[in-house]
Amino acid sequence: MSYMELSDSESDYEIEDIRNEEMPPDIDEKFRNNVLNVKDILYNKIILSPQLGTLEAQDNKLLDKYLKSINGVYILCINAQNGKINEAELNKFPLEARESIKNMLVWLLQFFKKNQIPDTIPYEDYIRKSFKEYQFVQNNSFE
Predict the structure, then answer these.
(1) How far apart are CA 126 and CA 79, in angstroms?
(2) Confidence at residue 12, expressed as pLDDT on a 0 to 100 scale
(3) Do residues 70 and 42 touch, judged by C-beta distance below 8 A?
(4) Of all residues in the chain, what percent carry a pLDDT higher than 70?
(5) Can you point out the beta strands (E) in 32-98?
(6) How crowded is residue 73: how many other Cβ atoms within 10 Å of its Cβ?
(7) Mean pLDDT across the stretch 34-44?
(8) Which of 13, 31, 57 is nearest to 130 (CA)?
(9) Are 69 and 46 in contact (CB under 8 A)?
(10) Dmax over Cα atoms in the chain, in whole Å?
(11) What is the pLDDT of residue 1?
(12) What is the pTM of this model?
């Protein structure tokens, strides 16, 4: 049968439907809460720190600083996934956020060391969504 003679009926060809019926593991609630806590602290210390009604509070530089901080946390998370935590990098963040960031990174490092790739993929996705795609979302509404 030539290409032109092929029909669209299912009997002429079979499509193998491969689906993973298992749901991915749920993200650890403690880890999710820690991520949200880090974002909340950074937002409060950077965006909400100037007095309302002042020119500083209206300056877009605050948004740039927040986005740079969130991006910095994302990079630290990627490094922790690869087995590296550079504590000197924590000094770039507000003092109030450092402990939360460090706890999150240590948890992440340990999790990635003791789990295989299929178990870590949802965490990689969650980190990317939290710190790259939805930087301003302060809850888990993007899941």
Answers:
(1) 15
(2) 53
(3) yes
(4) 80
(5) none
(6) 27
(7) 95
(8) 31
(9) yes
(10) 77
(11) 46
(12) 0.78
- Report which of 137, 132, 5 is spatially closest to residue 70, judged by C-alpha positions: 132
| Residue with tokens 């999710």, as numbered in its chain | 32
**How far is Cα 143 from Cα 136, in angstroms, rounded to an integer?**
14
What HEC string does 67-121 produce? HHHHHHHHHHHHHHHCCCCCHHHHHHCCHHHHHHHHHHHHHHHHHHHHCCHHHHH
Angstrom distance (rounded) from CA 29 to CA 35: 10
Phi-psi region of 73 (alpha: psi -120 to 50; beta: other; left: phi over 0): alpha
Q: Which helix (H) or strand (E) holds 33?
A: helix 29-46
CB atoms within 10 A of CB 93: 21
118 — pLDDT class (breaks 50, 70, 90): confident
Question: At residue 65, what are phi and psi to the nearest 5 degrees?
Answer: -65, -45
Tokens of 75: 């990079």
